[in-house]
Design a protein that fits this description.
The protein has 334 residues and is mostly helical. Helix 1 (6-34) runs antiparallel to helix 4, helix 1 (6-34) packs antiparallel against helix 7 (112-139) and helix 7 (112-139) crosses helix 8. The relative contact order is 0.15. It has one domain (6-323). The strands form two sheets. A two-stranded antiparallel sheet has the order 1-2. Strands 3-4 form a two-stranded antiparallel sheet. The radius of gyration is 20 Å and the shape is globular. It has helices at residues 6-34, 42-51, 55-58, 60-72, 74-83, 85-107, 112-139, 158-182, 186-212, 218-225, 230-233, 235-252, 258-278, 289-292, 296-323, and strands at 143-144, 147-148, 281-283, 287-288.
Length: 334
């Protein structure tokens, strides 16, 4: 048997997959959220072309995260799916809807307005569903004897809706800063204006969720404010403040790349704060990663495959972003 803790290793692999999904698929969901604010024609076409080469690959990480959760932590998978069936199914249907709309808006130009609306609606629903799922997980899932005992709508609370709206706002900011980096002319000017408002909304939303989370449970309160770990946890909001200052300064100076990178740092720090709150629980407050883990033999058997495949995925993802670097035009996607 390996000398290291396999459930912890798998927890970090799944956390990395979720992180990669949020930062990579987040900006193309954000573009869908912003779609109604973009005039039909050249600007929408340029926005779609900026994500056309990469959007399919971005969702690879969602498959890895979900599949890894099923394989490595089957108890957590069963519990989370039982408790959050409605928002998870809504998210999956929305992702399918927007994927179909993405392809058909080019193949069926007579109904492009309808496909654009479907693309935007799918993006909004997917973002809200992901945030609501996260909020519901944070507020806790009722478990008794390893079985979900809550109700059908336990996931729908003011806190989960706050997290859903916050994530949608953050995705929209990612989308706006991505378009700043990838576009020029009137579309870029529009995205600078949008990004200022969205940055304010995102930071306010992060502050609201951060203030509400410790009030959900004594566990979260102690994680953030008990002595002496408060000396370490206090660095997260400090770094968020620094990244926020860089974001606003780069927008004011009309930098092209820095706003997107600063937004990625804000997301990274927010996910790090989520890890501080949750670890080692995969289904708070009752199921830890060790309670939910598959047998050690299964975890050890799967690990070499993941350690080979993840670098390959990272390599071809980096290559695709490199090949399609630079500004994007409005010509049709084929």
């Amino acid at each position: 048997m390996p000398a290291f803790d396999l459930p912890t290793v798998w927890a970090f692999i799944i956390a990395f997959a979720i992180f990669a999904y949020v930062v990579m698929d987040g900006f193309d969901l954000g573009i869908g959220i912003l779609f109604p604010t973009l005039p039909a024609g050249r600007e929408r076409d340029s926005a779609m072309n900026s994500i056309a080469p990469v959007w399919d690959g971005n969702e690879t990480w969602l498959v890895l995260g979900g599949g890894g959760l099923l394989a490595a932590f089957p108890l957590a998978y069963a519990t989370i799916l039982s408790a959050l069936y409605a928002p998870i199914v809504a998210m999956l249907l929305a992702l399918i809807f927007r994927g179909v709309a993405f392809e058909f808006r080019w193949r069926d130009p007579r109904h492009r307005a309808a496909w654009d609306a479907a693309f935007s609606l799918g993006s909004v629903v997917a973002a809200l569903a992901q945030g609501i799922t996260l909020g519901a997980l944070l507020q806790g899932i009722a478990v008794d004897s390893r079985v979900y005992v809550g109700g059908w709508f336990d996931w729908l609370t003011p806190f989960s809706v706050l997290v859903g709206v916050s994530l949608a706002c953050g995705y929209a900011l990612l989308g706006a800063t991505w378009l700043i980096m990838k576009s020029e002319g009137t579309l870029q000017d529009r995205c600078y204006r949008l990004a200022f408002g969205l940055a304010i909304g995102t930071i306010v939303a992060i502050a609201a969720v951060s203030a509400a989370t410790p009030l959900l449970s004594d566990l979260y309160w102690k994680r953030w404010f008990a002595w002496p770990q408060v000396l370490f946890t206090a660095q997260v909001p400090l770094l968020v403040a620094i990244a926020t200052a860089v974001l606003f300064a780069s927008l004011a100076r009309r930098h092209h790349v820095t706003p997107f990178l600063a937004t990625l740092i804000v997301f990274t720090l927010s996910l790090a704060g989520l890890g501080v709150s949750l670890f080692p629980y995969v289904v708070p407050p009752d199921i830890s990663i060790w309670d939910a883990a598959a047998p050690s033999a299964s975890l050890a058997f799967m690990l070499p495959g993941v350690l080979v495949l993840v670098p390959i995925i990272l390599a071809y993802t980096a290559w695709s972003y490199w090949v399609f670097r630079g500004k994007t035009g409005h010509e049709g996607y084929h």
